[in-house]
Each structure stands twice: as C-alpha cells, then as structure tokens.
## 1
Amino acid sequence: MGRFKVLFIHSSLGMGGVETFYLRMAKQRASEGKSTVIILLSNERRSDSSLLAEAKKYAKVLFLKDLTYLPNNLVWLIPFHLSLLIPLKTNIRKQLNEITHVHVSCGICAFFYAHLSKFVAKNVKFTIGLYHSLEFCWGGEVLPYFERKNRQLFFDTIDRKSIIFFNESMVPLYEKLSGQSFRNVNLFPLGVIEKVAPVTAVSNPGLKLLRLVSVGRLVAFKTYNLHMLDVVANLQKRGIPVVYDIYGDGPMQQDMKLKIDDYGLSSIVSLKGRLDYSLFSDVVSSYDIFIGSGTAIVQAAGLGVSAIVGIENVDAPETYGFLADLPGFSYNEDGLYVKKPITEVIEKFYCLDQKSRIKFSHKHVEKALEFSMEKCSLNFDNTPHSILNDDTRNRYSNAVFRLRYSASFIFTSFMAKLKGSSLSEQVRVNSARE
C-alpha cells in the first residue's frame, strides 16, 4: 500500500450521503494502492449490513469493541453519545500505525480523535469536512455545552487549512455568521462518480408516461419529499401521466402515506422502502427524472437520468431546476439561485422530444463528472498540512472535558426524543440563513 493512509472517524455506516461517500473513498483509494481505516463509534447493529460488508472489502473497519479492554457485552450497551468515555487499550497503536491523515465530519468525532491521538503520530494531518452547511450554525443564542465546544473547536481552535467545504455557498455563510475569514479553507466538490463509464438512461420514444423517482431518508429537513406529492397531484390534474416511486424510510414516512391517501394517489405513487445501495444504479437508471439532494442526485445524473434539485428546508414545492443547468457545485441549500415551481419544470421536460431528452441526459452525465471520485481523492491527499497541536490534544482528551461533553450530548439528545424529534433532525431543520 502507498504512503497515504487515511483514518475516517464516524458514528456508524447507516444509509446516508456521508457514509456512502466514505465507502466510495475507501474503494477509490484501494484502486490507487492506498490504505484506509474507518473507526465507527457505534456497535455493528447500527450500521447497514450491506454497506458494512462492502466497506470491509476496501478498508480496515474498527468498532469501539476493538479499541478497549472493556468486555464486549458492556461495550455493546454504550451509545454513540458516550463513546468518548471508553478507556482505550494501548496496543491499538499497532492498528493505527502509519496513519498520515485523520478526517472527521462532526465535533464528537474530532474529540474522539483527540482522545485517540496519543496512539497516533503527532505530525498527522487533521481535517474536518462539512457535509451539511448547518453543522456548526444551528440553534439559537443558548447552546448546550457540547455544541459550544464544537463551535470553539471549529471557529477558534483548528487551522482553516484543516477545514474542507464541499459547497461554495458555505464560505459567505460562515463568514457572515462568525465575522471571521474562511478564505483559506479547502474547497472542492464531494466525490460521487467513480472511475467508470457512466450509463446513459435509455428512453422509450413511444412511451409518454413519465417515471419519477426519489431515493433518500424521509426526514423533516428534506421538505421536497412531501412537496412532491402536491406536484404529482397537480401533474395529474394537468393531464400529464406520471408514476412516482419513493425509495427510503424515516420519520416522515407515515405523514407521506397519509398525504398519498388524502390525494388518492396510491395507484401512481409508491413508497418502496429502503433501497440497497448496491442496487442504486440498476434501479434508478430505469427512470426519466430523479428528484432529490445530497450525493444521490449526482449519482443519478451520472447514470444519465435528468435530475431535479430537491432544496432542503423550503416551504413550497419549488426547485432551482435540473442539476445540469446549475453553475458550480452548490445545489442543496435554500437561497442559492432563483427558484421555480417543480410542476412547471417537469411539465417542460414532458414536452421535450426524444432527441432533446437524450441530449439532456448526456448533459447530466457531463455535470456529474465534475464530482469525480478520482479528483476528490487527489484533493484529499493534497490538502495543506495542518495538525492538532499538543495544547489542543491535551485540552480535549482531558477526562473531565470528555465527561462534561458526553453528559451534555446525551442529555440534549434525550430531550429531543421527548419532543418527538432527534438531535440530528434539529441540526438539519434549524437555519442560520433566517
């Protein structure tokens, strides 16, 4: 294996954009002769079995039970929120040998690295990637202790060279929020498309029925999931024949089912449940239009499927349009471009002739290739050298800090559940743009 050995620290390998990105990154790096280690701060049952099996083909995957002398039946009961409290065994140094770069996606994973850092060389490059723009700007003026420490790390402690933004709009957003400069962060597109020849979706020129599809978690901040039911009802009224298949599960599933029943759409709208990641290409390539966000929309575009941007946290069934028509590599968040009704966007597509649809399909493939895994892997390796210094390591590996942080984290999560929500949902729904 090559000299670049990356360690990703994450909560679990559930079905989501960050998780599938880590899997693709491990696969890409393996093809380049580079080593990858993934530490997951939850037990194995919290991970998607197919993603986990795939990840183990390309990376060394470690769980909490692999990092501590505590008995397995006890570690099995430790929730993600308390992962900072496990005592680490000294021989894990061998498993982390030759790590050159540690990458995390959130505060608790960064602090776990501080806890772990005494077993890793001091000159290791450290980066934190923002996979959602609200990660460090949710909530109001009064924040829980754990989030205050997350902000302290992000805004005041780590070097800007340790930050990776995958979205151009994050720079002005975080500069406005903090009054600080974020000009020196690393900025490049998230890798989505692997080094394979993209498949162009095949359309049937004699078929006028529009086949629509969405794939992703059915969660509150993805408001377009509910809006699309209004859109399908409007298309039906306008005489445009459509079917709409929705792959995914989550807390919004019951609300969507009720709305489907209220509109009488059960014959043309189907809740298909979770889609196995390995089947994504085969399933999605059979549709005319994909509606969504995150990495899934880029994957769909790479298959030649025309992809409509599902904007997060919006109050109306509106979009920026098709991904292929947008400049740059920002598309998820509200407030980026002029919006238009989704119904009108689909109606215009429906009126295209076969030749125009095929041309538009190729345009989506070209757009998707901007999100190349090969380029992203190279960008990861070429990010400027920055480390967690001794003072930062010592401050955040301190036992008292780890106890206070963990207590605050689990208490806040518990209170969110009492309100019928979750901490991750609150982070995604709150908006600093308001």
## 2
Amino acid sequence: MAAFQEDIESFESLDTQVLGVSADSMESHYKFAKELNLTFPLISDPDGKVTDLYATGRIAFLIDKKGFVRMIVKGMPNNSKILKKIRKIEDRLKKNPE
C-alpha cells in the first residue's frame, strides 16, 4: 500500500482510484492507514465476498470508468510500469471510445 501512496498524485491525475481490500477489520484498516499516511480508501472484506469475486493477495486491478477490468497486476506494484499502462489505456480509449 505504501508503494501506491508514494505515487497517489500520479494515479489521481489519470483519474485512477486506488483502493485497498483485505479481510482486516475497519479498526485495523484505520490504524494501518494512519501508520502509513494513506490517503486512499481501504475496504474491509471480512466475509471474503470481494476477494472471492476477484482474487486474494497482492493484486491490483485497473478498472475503467465503465467498470471494465483493463489490467491485472500481481505481486508488488511497479508504479512506473502501471502508470505507463494506464496512460496507454487512456490514449487508446480516447482514440477509440467503446
């Protein structure tokens, strides 16, 4: 999560919302967010409904404004690569709106 926070302004400048999801409690999320100075939302998923639909572990989904998953990133994020792919997706969608 800290890696996403480091580049949060870059993600936001590309209209990209970062969300953290885990089974941890809201209290745990609050402490974690405060500890790392996170400015993006953390979602508590104690029943695993969200992770059952998508996946568990360190996974980032890039979902466009229409709700389509455009990219899935597994493992520790490489923000420069992710931001580059977001820019490519944005450029492609501008040229060929769906």
## 3
Amino acid sequence: MIQLSRYVKVYPSEQSSEQQLLFSTKKASKALVSPETLQSIKQDILSPEDETLLSRLGMIVEDREEEKREVLSLFDRMNGTNPELNITVVLNLDCNFACIYCYEGSMKGSLYMTEETADRLIEFIKGHFQDHKKSLVVDFYGGEPLLSLGLIKSISRRLKSYAKSRGASYRFTLVTNGSLFKRKVARELKRLGLTNVQITLDGPAENHNKYRPFKSGAESFDILIKNIQETWDLVKIGIGGNFDEKSYKEFFQLLDDLEWAGLTPDKISSIKFAPIVNRPEGDISPVDYMAGCMSSSEPWLIEAEAFLRGEILRRGFNTPKAGPVYCAVENTSCYVVNYDGVIYKCPGFIGKEGFEVGDLRTGIRDYRVSYKLGAWKNGHCADCEYLPMCFGGCRYMTYIKDGNINALDCKKDYFDASLETLVKQDIKYGSHPM
C-alpha cells in the first residue's frame, strides 16, 4: 500500500494557491502537487506515472516501518561501503591572528606537530586505508595550518605517492585564516593535491578587523581580499563568516564588498555564515566574549540565518542547501588527529578530557559510549520527520549547553521555525521543484 513518507514535510506553495510543496528530509527533493494528488496518495489510487515519480523522489513508500528501519541503519550501511578515508590533521595550535572569540582559547601556543608524529600519522593512515578505499582526503587544520607549510608539503608528497601506488586518489583541503595564502603557496600546494580552501571573513571590513585582527592589532581584511583575488583561479575558495547578535544585521555588506573587489559568484565556490558559539562556564575559551549563541533554536539566530542566507542566494552565491546531514562522529572512516598525535572524532572536542578515542602510538579504542553513538536510535527520533536532517543533533552543541553529551541536541523546534523558509529560499533562487 502506497503511503506518504514519514520524512516528508508539506508546505503551502508560493507559486500556486492550488498546489502544495512536498519536501523530503531524507532526499532533499521537492515536488509541487495538487490537493487531489495528496488525496490520491491517502487513498492509494495514484496514477502509475505519479507513483513512479513520487517514489523516486522519496515522497511515497510502500512500507513506513521498513522506511524507518532503513533510516535507522543508514550509517551502518554507509560505513560498510564508504570508499573514502577522511582525516582532519591539526598541524599546530599557533596563530598569527588574535580573534576575540577564538575557539581554541587557552589551548593556543607554540605547539606544533613534529616530524616524528607526522611519520606516525602516515603509518596510521596507511593502516586504515583498507582495500575497498579509493579516495584519501586530508583536511589540514590549526591553529593556522599554513604556519606549518613545510609539514603540509612533506605529508602530502608521501600520501600522494602512497595513494597512487594503491590506485587511489589523494587530495587535501585547508581551513585557514587566509593571511598566508599567497599565489606562490597556492601553486605549490595545488601540485601536491590541494583542491579547496576555507577562509573566514567576519562581515565587512570594520567588523572583520574588530573580530579578527592580527596579533599585532593590525587590520587583516584587505590582505585577505587581496589573497583571494590572487588565488581563486587556482583552487576552489569557500568563504565562512562568524556572526553574533550584534553583528549579523550588517554582515551581508561583506557580499557587496566581495563583488566590488571582483570576487563574483563565479569566483567563490560557496559562502556560509554561521553563529559564534559561546562556551560553558569554566571552559578553555575566552570568558570575556559571551555574545554568541548557546542553541540553534534561539529566536534571533533563526531570524539571522534566514536573513543572511537569503542575501547570499539573492546575489547568486552558492551556499549549502537544506538537506540531510551526516555527522563525522558516526562515520567510522573519519578521524581528527591533534598535533600531539591524540585522536578525536570531532574538532570541537580537541583537548576535552574523555573525548579522546586513541592516539597514533596505540591506535583507536572503542568510543561508542564516550561519543554516544546511535543515541538517536530511539522511538521518538525514529518517528520524527526531521531525523535525516538531525540524527540527534550536534553532540558538541549539547556539550556547549550541558557540559556533557548525555542528552540529544533535538533540532525539532529549530526546523519547525526555519525549514520552510530555507526550502523556499532554495526554490526561489535556483533549486526548483522536480
């Protein structure tokens, strides 16, 4: 018997008062249907053509209980066939910036990965690159990873050669403040496998320079713009930005600055603005900055996200579409290696006691309990229409709120308030219903 998927949301259409918009949280697919078609689904009398199309889009299923079981087993199936190994490497905890909200707080210092630790990293990667793996991806992270430029080159040369010997591919990405990403550096790293760079610009120049100055106090905005202008044609450059309740209303002016600088949508791979997140009391980060958020459901944040996302799309820039998310914590082919060789499952937990999952000397230990794997496999989450976009939410956000991850970071209130807007933004600015 044909039924509407439990993971489908039904919204009024803005294109036609005689149609409704279906959105699959499982497939991120969209469809405009008439009330008569919805009634035909309920009565199981769809035409063969409509049944074929809506089934392909994930809007209808024959067995909702079987569909639930499929979603609950999604990570198990993905982990069994995943052809990619993804390793985030924290090369150092040093930085030439003095961001007022720095996520690494008091962990920062002249702390660098040694050649010996890099050797162990290479052996760790080789040991986890099983026969079915076809792609090796390394995300170099910091601190500021380009302060360890020599090590990036050394590691990449060896991994590129290793992957080639296995008939596999190697590529790497950078999360950098952008100040050291000059054209010469970009050329050298591209030859070794660099494909994507993420650079943070915290809004227009005045705001960015206040939030992300150099350690000397000097302004950084103009330098970053110049570096992006000189390198966008070599690798894909994505721009991130961190806003708070005070800054977001002027944040969009950065988009005008980019276009004025010639950095039009065809030259920037994507833009995503995200809120600055506060820290629980007693955490390692700066105690004098508390203007960020503690939950994704805060009313100001929902308003800010819709506003900024709309401005990004309206100008023709790319930004992630509303759809399923797959947390790295549940991915058995995804690890974070700190500069000292200690291994975690998420960059947010670096330095947090109890969240280590091993080290490069001894290997990986069982982390199912410490990271609460599969905590979302319960009746309440399984029946929630948002499960494929949430899977229990972000463990790190739970830690921010509670100081532990014993509870789930339920996103229902957030999606109830925001998803319809996000989906309709995607339709309005280019992602049309199928």
## 4
Amino acid sequence: MALRKLRPLTPSQRFKMANTFEEVTASKPEKSLLEPVKKSGGRNQTGKMTMRYIGGGHKKNYRVIDFKRSKDGIEGTVKTVEYDPNRSARIALVFYKDGEKRYMIAPAGLKVGQKVMSGKGAAPEIGNALLLSEIPLGTIIHAIELHPGQGAVMARSAGTYAQLAARQDKYAVVKMPSGETRMILLTCKATIGAVSNADHNLEISGKAGRSRWLGRRPRTRPVVMNPVDHPMGGGEGRASGGHPRSRKGIPSKGYKTRYPKKASSKYILEGRKK
C-alpha cells in the first residue's frame, strides 16, 4: 500500500496524508457477512456517560471476521480485498470449496485468486493458518490465539506482526509486537505473514472533521479544567497542572498498572520495551 500527499488547495489538505487504497479490489461488502452496529455514544444501559468524547460518526455495519480459521483442510480462494471501517487492517473475502464464504484479516502481500488453507498439513505460506507446532522457527506471524480454539486475539492491527522464536516442551516462545517475549501453547493457531496496511500509522487526517466522522468528539485537556473536574486542573493563569495522572488519580508516564501476582505473568519471559 502507499500514501499520497495532497496539494494544499484548502487548509485541511495542507498536511493531509491519505491512503491510496490501491490494494482494495471491491467497494461493496458481502451482505451475508454483515451485522448491525448500534452506537452507544459512550453511554451505558441506564443512559449515563461512562466513556467521554464518544459520539456521532458515520453509520457502518460490522463485518463478521473468521478469527478461528476453523475450516481445516478445506481450500479457499481469495475473491476480494476490502476496506473495513471497524479496524485498521484490510480484510479478505474467501470462497471455500464447500460453498461457504468467510472474511479473514488480510496479510500483507495477499492477492486476489490466491489459495489459503488452515489446519494440519497446510504449507507455511502467507495467509495460511497453522498450529504453532507446525510453523518453522523465525517465521513472521499474526492473528495469534492465546488459548486453543479461542480465535485470534493478538497481532491483529494494521502492520503488526510477531515472530516465532523457539519451542520449549509444550510451549512456543513468541516475540510480540510490543517487544514482549512470552510462551504460548503449541496447540494455538497463528497466521503466516504480517498484517496489511502497514502505513496506517503514517496517515494524517488534516482536519478535526475527520475525527468526527470516526465518532470521536473533541477532547478537553485536563490542565484547562477546574480542580473539581480533574486532579491536573486549577491554578492561576496557565499552570502546568502538576504530575500527569488520570481523572481518577492514577499516575501515567511509567506507573505500572499490571497486577504483579497475575496468573499469566509466569508465561512472560521478557517484558515489553518501554
């Protein structure tokens, strides 16, 4: 994929870096794989706002993604690569030989017409989903399960990937996108390759209106609030606001919030890079 810089014909286009969508091959999604999305506006079931700065946004449908890749041994053909408004990565529509259609996270380099497989016996090629016990060491992977049969939960965002580093007994040692090295059961699945749309983090919206289209309302800085509204508020003139912390008083910038006795800590061999 690639980005394009627009000519500054308007103020909003002066700094805008837009996606070219050159890898997208279809403009309309598969209707049978759509589900409605109800907007909450940041409110809970009683109508109380529990998440600030959420509201508005363009109407959209949810694309049902096959994170489990459970059609083992059945060959599928990539029919389209599509844009998904619910995630940063591209998605691919796969037609399987038994007639079923499913969406999957599109890895970088996946082309229309390409064959994909999952399960035992699948080749370690881009787009194929295999058990960690069958993937060659050093392979770049994404869409990784944390528990067998759970479905992919890690390395699903645009441009992310992990690397299979080693195997120890019944565990695989995987280096995560955060830099963390952890152990995952060999019976968990992962997909070969890196996630598509790697230049997503380089995009620049250019104007506040595009954030509103995405359902993000303007965010008020804590230092301009009053002391009753935020721990960093108040003061005469333009006060700096004191130590950075959340509205509930939890410090940011280095304060560890992970529970030190968490059961899964024993599977983490090396912590994520700061």
